[in-house]
C-alpha cells in the first residue's frame, strides 16, 4: 500500500517531466495537458486518502520500512487528508486560470507549480519535525520563483524582501528544532508527544525556548500579527493565480502550529503544557483586528484581499488557541472556507481589474466594467461568505467558533472581535464593491471584451466550492469534529506511529547513550502493544 | 571547548544579525550566509560535545550522536541552494530597479523613481490584457 507517498511523488515526477519537456511556446499546450492530468490524478489520490482517513484509521507509511523513531514516516490522519484535498481543490482552478495566459508570462510556471504542490503535500503528510522543515523549504523555494513570476520591478523588490525574511525564518526554525532535539532526543512528532512531558524541569526551559522559536517561525508563515506585515505587499504584488495558490501557503503555517503547539505542546505535555497558550489567543485576536483595519485602509483590491487573508488567519488561530475539540472543529471548517473564498477573491480581483482600463485594481472611480452583474454578484457572494453572513459557510464556521468560545474565560473578547471583524470585513468589501461597480464614470471608454469563459469558470469553481461547504455543512462538520477529536488523541497517534512502543527498540533515537535511560513510563492513556 | 564553541557560535550569529539589518542587499545576503553557518554549527553541537567518540556505532562504549550530523548535512545543502538563489534575485532586482537598497529605491527618493540608469518600467501586476490574450 503505497498510497500515502504518492501525493508527494506524483507532483515531483510531473515537475521533472515538465522540465524535460522544456518551455518553448509550441510545447505549452502539452505542458498544460500534462499538468492538468497530474492535478486531476492528485485530486483522485487526495479523495481516496480522504475516504481512507474518514474510516478512522491512521495510515502510517514508513519509508524504507525503518521503525518509526529512527526512520522517516508519513502519517495520514483526518486533518492531513483534508488538507491534501483542500490543496487539490485550490490548485485545480488555479492551474485552469493560469493556463489562460499567465503561464506564458514567465518560464517554467507549470513545473514550479508542481514543485510547490509537492512541498505542500509533503508538509501536510510528514510525521517528523525535520521533514516538515525540508518540505517547507521545497514549497518556499518554489514559491520564491512563483512570487516573481512575470517579473517587473515591484515583484522583484517585494520578492527579494520575501526571500530574505523567509530565509531568516528558516534559520530560526533550525535553531528551535535543534533545541527540541537536544532536550528530547527525537524529532518524530509522535515520539515527541510522549517525550515532552518527561523532560525534567531544568531542561524544560530550553525545550520551551525551542517551542517559542517554532511559534515565531510558524507565526511568520501564517502571518500572525507582529510578523504579518510582509504578507499584504507580497500577495498583492504576485500574479493573480500565484496569489490564489498562496492562499493555501499561509495555512501550512497554521497547520504546523496546530500539530506542534496544539498537540505536542498542548494538554498532557507536563511541565511544557500549553507553553504558547498565553500568547496564542491574544496574538490571534490582534491579527484579526489588524488584518481588517489594514483591509479598510487598502487602496487596491488585491491589497484589500491580502489583508483579509491576515484577518482570516487570525480567526483560525484564535479557534486553535481556544484548545478544545469544538473550537478545533470550528477552526478546520473556517479554514476550508476562508482558503477557498480568498483564492477565489484573488482571481476575481484580476478579472475586475482587467476590465477597468487605466485604474485597473486601484479603488478609485473609473470606467464601468464590462460584466458588472456577473462580477458584482460574485464579489457580493465572496464578501458575504468572508464576513460571515448566513447561510454561507463563513457564517457556519464563525457560529461554530462562537459556540465553542462561549464557556471560555475570554468568551466576551472572542465574541466581540469575531463579530466586529465580520462587520468591518463587510464594510471594507462593500466599499470596494461600490467603488468598482457603482461609482463609475460612464464617459470613459469601457473595456473591449469581457473575461474569457475559462478564467470565469476557474473563479466560479473556487467560490462555488465554498458554497458547497454550506450545502454539505452537516457531513463536513461531522468530519471536522472527528478530525479534531483524532488530533487530540495523542496516544492513538503514538500507538499507530510507534508500533514497538515501550519495547527496547523504540527507547530513543539515542539508544547508544550510556547509561541507558529508564524504560519509557507510559502515560495513563497509552497501552502496550502486544 | 564548550566556551570556545559557544562564543564562536555567538559571535558569528551576532555578526550575521548585524549584517542582516543593513540596508543594502549584499550585506544582507552575507549576513544570511553567516547566520546559516552559525545555525549549522549549532545543530551539530546539539548532539552534545564528544571527545574521542566514534561517529558510527561500533564495539566501543562511546558513540557520538549521528543524527545531528545527518540533519546538518541536509541543512547545509538547503542553505547553499537558497543563498545562491537570493544572490541571483538581488542581482536581478538591482539590475531592474537600479538600486541595491532592500527597499528597492535609494533613500531619499520616492518609490518607483529610481536613478536615471533604471531599467524601463516593467509590466505591472495587473497590466490590462495581461494573462487573457490566449485564453
From TrEMBL, chain B:
Subcellular location: Cell membrane
Transmembrane segments: 6-21, 28-50, 70-91
Membrane topology: Multi-pass membrane protein
GO cellular component: plasma membrane
Basic and acidic residues bias: start-end ranges: 98-108
Keyword terms, alphabetized: Cell membrane, Membrane, Transmembrane, Transmembrane helix
Name recorded for this polypeptide: Na+/H+ antiporter subunit C
Taxonomic source organism: Aquariibacter lacus
Amino acid at each position: 500500500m503505497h498510497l500515502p507517498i504518492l501525493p508527494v511523488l506524483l507532483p515531483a515526477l510531473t515537475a521533472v517531466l515538465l522540465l524535460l519537456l522544456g518551455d518553448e511556446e509550441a510545447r505549452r499546450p502539452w505542458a498544460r495537458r500534462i499538468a492538468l492530468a497530474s492535478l486531476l490524478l492528485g485530486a483522485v489520490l487526495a479523495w481516496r486518502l480522504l475516504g481512507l482517513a474518514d474510516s478512522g484509521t491512521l495510515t502510517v507509511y514508513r519509508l524504507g520500512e525503518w521503525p518509526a523513531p529512527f526512520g522517516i514516516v508519513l502519517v495520514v490522519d483526518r486533518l492531513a487528508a483534508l488538507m491534501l484535498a483542500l490543496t487539490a481543490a485550490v490548485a485545480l482552478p488555479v492551474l485552469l486560470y493560469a493556463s489562460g495566459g499567465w503561464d506564458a508570462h514567465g518560464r517554467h510556471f507549470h513545473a514550479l507549480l508542481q514543485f510547490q504542490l509537492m512541498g505542500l503535500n509533503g508538509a501536510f503528510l510528514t510525521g517528523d519535525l525535520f521533514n516538515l522543515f525540508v518540505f517547507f523549504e521545497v514549497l518556499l523555494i518554489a514559491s520564491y520563483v512563483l512570487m516573481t513570476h512575470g517579473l517587473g520591478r515591484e515583484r522583484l523588490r517585494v520578492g527579494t524582501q520575501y526571500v530574505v525574511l523567509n530565509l531568516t525564518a528558516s534559520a530560526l526554525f533550525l535553531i528551535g528544532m535543534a533545541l527540541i532535539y537536544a532536550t528530547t532526543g527525537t524529532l518524530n512528532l509522535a515520539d515527541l508527544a510522549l517525550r515532552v512531558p518527561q523532560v525534567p524541569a531544568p531542561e524544560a526551559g530550553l525545550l520551551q525556548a525551542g517551542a517559542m522559536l517554532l511559534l515565531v517561525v510558524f507565526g511568520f508563515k501564517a502571518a500572525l500579527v507582529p510578523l504579518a506585515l510582509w504578507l499584504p505587499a507580497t500577495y498583492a504584488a504576485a500574479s493573480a493565480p500565484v496569489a490564489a495558490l498562496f492562499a493555501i501557503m499561509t495555512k501550512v503555517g497554521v497547520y504546523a502550529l496546530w500539530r506542534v503547539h496544539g498537540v505536542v505542546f498542548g494538554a498532557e505535555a507536563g511541565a511544557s503544557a500549553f507553553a504558547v497558550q498565553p500568547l496564542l489567543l491574544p496574538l490571534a485576536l490582534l491579527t484579526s483586528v489588524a488584518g481588517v483595519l489594514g483591509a479598510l485602509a487598502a487602496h487596491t483590491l488585491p491589497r484589500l484581499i491580502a489583508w483579509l487573508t491576515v484577518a482570516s488567519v487570525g480567526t483560525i488561530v484564535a479557534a486553535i488557541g481556544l484548545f478544545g475539540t469544538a473550537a478545533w472543529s470550528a477552526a478546520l471548517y473556517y479554514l476550508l472556507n476562508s482558503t477557498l473564498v480568498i483564492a477565489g477573491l484573488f482571481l476575481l480581483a484580476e478579472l475586475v481589474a482587467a476590465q477597468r482600463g487605466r485604474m485597473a485594481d486601484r479603488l478609485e472611480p473609473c470606467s464601468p466594467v464590462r460584466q458588472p452583474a456577473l462580477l458584482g454578484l460574485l464579489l457580493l457572494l465572496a464578501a458575504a461568505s468572508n464576513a460571515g453572513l448566513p447561510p454561507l459557510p463563513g457564517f457556519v464556521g464563525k457560529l461554530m467558533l462562537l459556540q465553542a468560545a462561549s464557556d471560555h474565560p475570554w468568551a466576551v473578547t472572542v465574541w466581540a472581535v469575531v463579530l466586529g471583524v465580520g462587520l468591518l470585513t463587510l464594510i471594507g468589501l462593500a466599499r470596494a464593491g461600490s467603488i468598482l461597480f457603482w461609482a463609475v464614470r460612464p464617459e470613459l471608454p469601457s473595456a473591449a471584451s469581457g473575461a474569457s469563459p475559462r478564467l470565469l469558470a476557474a473563479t466560479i469553481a473556487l467560490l462555488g466550492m465554498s458554497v458547497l461547504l454550506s450545502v454539505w455543512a452537516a457531513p463536513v462538520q461531522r468530519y471536522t469534529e472527528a478530525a479534531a477529536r483524532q488530533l487530540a488523541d495523542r496516544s492513538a497517534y503514538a500507538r499507530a506511529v510507534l508500533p514497538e512502543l515501550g519495547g527496547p527498540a523504540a527507547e530513543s533515537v539515542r539508544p547508544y547513550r550510556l547509561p541507558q535511560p529508564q524504560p519509557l513510563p507510559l502515560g495513563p492513556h497509552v497501552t502496550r502493544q502486544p | 571547548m564548550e566556551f570556545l564553541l559557544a562564543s564562536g557560535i555567538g559571535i558569528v550569529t551576532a555578526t550575521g544579525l548585524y549584517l542582516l539589518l543593513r540596508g543594502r542587499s549584499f550585506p544582507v545576503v552575507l549576513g544570511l550566509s553567516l547566520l546559516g553557518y552559525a545555525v549549522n554549527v549549532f545543530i551539530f553541537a546539539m548532539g552534545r560535545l564528544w571527545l574521542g567518540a566514534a561517529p558510527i556505532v561500533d564495539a566501543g562504549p562511546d558513540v557520538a550522536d549521528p543524527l545531528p550530523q545527518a540533519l546538518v548535512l541536509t541543512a547545509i545543502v538547503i542553505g547553499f541552494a537558497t543563498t545562491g538563489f537570493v544572490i541571483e534575485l538581488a542581482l536581478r532586482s538591482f539590475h531592474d530597479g537600479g538600486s541595491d537598497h532592500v527597499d528597492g529605491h535609494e533613500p531619499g527618493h520616492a518609490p518607483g523613481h529610481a536613478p536615471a540608469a533604471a531599467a524601463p518600467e516593467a509590466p505591472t501586476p495587473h497590466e490590462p490584457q495581461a494573462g487573457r490574450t490566449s485564453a
